[in-house]
């Protein structure tokens, strides 16, 4: 496992960080045994940065990580977790959440503590008004919080304002070969680095879309250059090629992904890609951008919808229609939305209440997009056809 040095405090961090938002599942619950085994295996193979958050896995991620780090593992790693500022209305409220997080994580201190998902400076100003920064500074002095940072989903200008608003110890941004000019952007990455802070990268594979849903033309472009690397390897190497990046977080859901990422992270160095390899990315980017309709990363922050819409599922199938072609797309929509299940989660359930949109880090106009999904993937014959199918299937 390669490491990179935190330019602010000298911590040696594994370049691969374990994102704790996509643990393997057993039915509706986290597969605890497998997840703990994966976490400990990762540590034994050199991963020393673990990123979780208060709401991940509906509040179950932090306790799972805390449990996995018992028995001497805690001391070998850095824990990163997040203050859900959108749930905080007072300093007392923030203190309560922090205490709860330390209890769930079974730890006396948090190595990397950040505001979760700042999107513009008003989020930060709200925290300042409540006295949260003084409190965090105090926790840092006491050694209860080692580093104070923020994770960011928003536009470039907002990022620039926030990154300069406080002497942050680190920041976390979405960055991958499709987002070079999106969200914080490459210039935001460079700005944070120039201000002397390590940058942690999230969504390196855009919620798996840079692996699972790639068009044939993209796979061909990669393979024409070199048969061996997987799309995930291409994507991760592109990010690690940036010397300004300290850690990439990967939300690994199975042992194979963990093994592959550890293998890649044992050789991926900064400034390693050749001009020829970079030109492969130029080709790939233009193919994907031409075909992508909605920039959903499947982060699930908009969920649950009170009316039962599977928002990321709807958007994913809609994107697939343009990325992978129309063949079989309605069947895929039926399957993804659980049409034969008791409560199908289709776009037409949307009442346009708007509850979801404020939570979307990609600023997607979810209501508008769902209307399009309904029009393109459901259409007028959809409900009668589904009713017949359900009757035939005795549902
Ligand atoms: S706007 Fe539609 S999708 Fe969003 S929460 Fe409301 S009903 Fe659900
Ligand atoms: S619509 Fe937005 S919040 Fe919902 S899953 Fe997609 S990117 Fe995440």
Word description of this protein:
Helices cover about 45% and strands about 15% of the residues. It has about 400 residues and is an alpha/beta fold. The chain folds into two domains: about 5-290, Alpha-Beta Barrel (TIM Barrel); about 310-390, no CATH class. A hairpin with a 2-residue loop joins strand 4 (about 25) and strand 5. The longest helix is centred in the C-terminal third of the chain and has 17 residues, at about 275-290. The chain is globular and about 65 Å long. The mean pLDDT is about 90. The structure holds iron/sulfur cluster (2 copies).
Q: Name every ligand kind in the structure.
A: iron/sulfur cluster
Number of helices: 16
Order of helices and strands: EEEEEHEHEHEHHEHEHEHHHEHHHHHH
Global geometry: globular
Integer-rounded radius of gyration: 21 Å
Low-confidence runs: none
Q: Do you know the CATH topology of the largest domain?
A: TIM Barrel
Strand count, sense and barrel status of the largest sheet are: 8 strands, parallel, barrel
| Helical amount | 40-55%
**What's the rounded overall pLDDT mean?**
92
Q: CATH H level of the largest domain: which superfamily?
A: NADP-dependent oxidoreductase domain
Q: What is the number of beta strands?
A: 12
Distance between the termini: 51 Å
The CATH architecture of the largest domain is Alpha-Beta Barrel
Any idea of the CATH class of the largest domain?
Answer: Alpha Beta
Secondary structure class reads alpha/beta
- What is the strand content? 5-15%
